[in-house]
Design brief:
Elements: E1 3-5, E2 14-16, H1 26-39, H2 49-53, E3 59-63, H3 69-77, E4 82-86, H4 90-100, E5 113-116, H5 120-124, E6 132-138, H6 156-165, E7 166-176, H7 179-190, E8 196-198, H8 217-224, E9 230-236
Parallel strand pairs: 3-4, 3-6, 4-5, 6-7
Antiparallel strand pairs: 1-2, 7-9, 8-9
């Protein structure tokens, strides 16, 4: 989970969030030490499907993937697509690696994912314009206080960057269970109708999780607490 930080919501600076929580278990630390280096996004150069996977393919990018449930689920659904996930929280990265590593022979490792442990904007800037087929921002840190609104990822600068990286017809998916963030996001998206078309035909469309949208741990927690969850799909014009 990440938040956007900038002195001016029309500019892009960086994202930030928790770096580490409780100590990692032995198996989790082993995945950080051995699996993460093998599937880490390179630290330099353009971030392209060819550079990451050795061939051209539809490219997906998830900003702040949390525990990786959605990213691993989508990657498993679409084995011919390439997925990039960025997350600054070490424990979340370890959880995602466990999803990708396979389950004691019950299912094979997921090989079409690359991970950046750190700031999503560092990677997003290096993706060529028009290269992404999908971008995801699911249950970001809400920063509910008005004075913290500039820290939210759903702001003009990040949205301009996401729009630039999506191909025409590409899709931006956003989900939240926080009513303050919901209102803020819809207000911001109203300023970006020249870039995005809201894929919503009737009011109930954003109250029901679309097909092919795996549940995250944050969504499951929100539902367990009785929160309503909202789902948004926007097409790049």
């Amino acid at each position: 989970m990440t938040a956007y930080k900038s002195g001016d919501p029309t500019t892009i600076n960086r994202l930030y969030g928790r770096a580490k929580g409780k100590p990692l278990r032995t198996h989790q630390q082993g995945l950080i030490d051995t699996l993460l280096p093998r599937i880490a996004v390179p630290t330099e150069g353009p971030v392209t499907a060819e550079a990451l996977f050795g061939h051209d393919c539809p490219l997906h990018f998830e900003i702040g993937f949390g525990g990786g449930e959605h990213m691993a689920g989508r990657a498993d659904m679409l084995p011919d697509h390439g997925f990039i996930g960025a997350e600054p929280f070490l424990n979340g990265v370890a959880a995602a690696l466990a999803h990708l590593d396979g389950d004691s022979g019950q299912h094979p490792p997921i090989g079409n994912v690359r991970i950046h442990h750190g700031d999503a904007l560092e990677v997003l800037r290096r993706i060529p314009d028009g290269a992404l087929s999908f971008a995801y921002l699911l249950h970001p840190d809400p920063w509910p206080k008005a004075r913290h609104a500039k820290r939210r990822m759903m702001n003009d600068g990040p949205l301009d960057l996401i729009a630039a990286k999506l191909r025409p017809g590409g899709e931006f998916r956003f989900g939240t269970d926080h009513p303050v963030y919901l209102r803020h996001a819809l207000m911001v998206m109203q300023r970006h109708t020249h870039q995005f078309e809201w894929l919503c035909e009737k009011p109930g469309d954003f109250q029901k999780r679309p097909g092919g949208w795996p549940e995250t741990r944050y969504e499951a927690k929100a539902r367990a607490q009785g929160h309503e969850v909202w789902y948004f799909r926007f097409r790049r014009k």
